[in-house]
Each structure stands twice: as C-alpha cells, then as structure tokens.
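2024-03-11 09:14:02 DEBUG pipeline.ingest accepted 1 chain
2024-03-11 09:14:02 DEBUG pipeline.ingest length=155
2024-03-11 09:14:03 DEBUG pipeline.predict start
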Amino acid sequence: MVLTPMVCFKPAQPHLIGCALAACVLATFALPAAAKTPHAAHPPANAAGKMEKSLMKLDPTELATQVCDLSAMKALGRDAEYKKTDRVLIDAAETPKITGEKVTGEGGAFRMGDQWFRFGYTCTLASDHMSAVDFRYKVVGPIPEAKWAEFGLWH
C-alpha cells in the first residue's frame, strides 16, 4: 500500500485552522509512518535514554523541579477528582525547598479545565534524582484569576 502526502487547505472558518492543521500533519506524517511500521504504537527503545540524557543536562534544582512536576502530574492523574489535570508547576507560587532527596513546597499549581489550583507537596526523589519514588500532595484551593499573572499562569 502506497500512501502519499495530502495537500491541506485552510478552512473558511478561522477558528478551525488549528484543527485542520493538526489533521493535516497527522494525515501527512503520522498515519503513513504507522502504516509502514508494524510496531509504531510502541516508542523506540532509546526514547527513555534520550529523555534521561536531556534531564542530565539540567542543573540540580531544575532537574528536581522537572522530575517532581512529572510525578505531580501522574499523582493527580490517578486521583478521580483531579484526573483531568493538564498542567502542573510545583514552583508556581514559591521556590521548592530541596533537602537531599526531599523536595517540598506550598506553592504548586495545577490546571484543570479553565481553573488553576494551588497545592502543597512532598516529592521524594530516587538517589540519582532522575525519578521520584513518592509524591504526596494536598490541594489548597482555586487560585483567583487576578493572581495568575503574578504566578506566571495562563488560560
């Protein structure tokens, strides 16, 4: 089966341009690649290695922040009440405190729908700081939209 790239046109309605562009990219690149590769649904074995190499380039504070952001996203995603969370910043309202393998703070923020929520957390890093072995959080409540700019949050 031979698949050729599609020619995509802009739709008449400007609000649909993003959807049309995404569909065009998917149809042009992702679907043909999936059709040619029997195991396309599985990431390459070296994908984890590339991510690890990227993390190793970060300074220790940024590494801890990134690892705990990811851990927070996973923890919130497992909670039925917060599973629709799509963004997490553990350092939104204050700089995390890092002591050995413990990262703690009260200034985390996560976005669910069109609302940001503040949370406190304790993130326990693995000894190499490349992953988290535990993440615990407590949601404080919604962050008023008037404070979003102060914390670097967005719609």
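2024-03-11 09:14:41 DEBUG pipeline.report Residues 17-36 form the longest helix (20 residues).
2024-03-11 09:14:41 DEBUG pipeline.predict end
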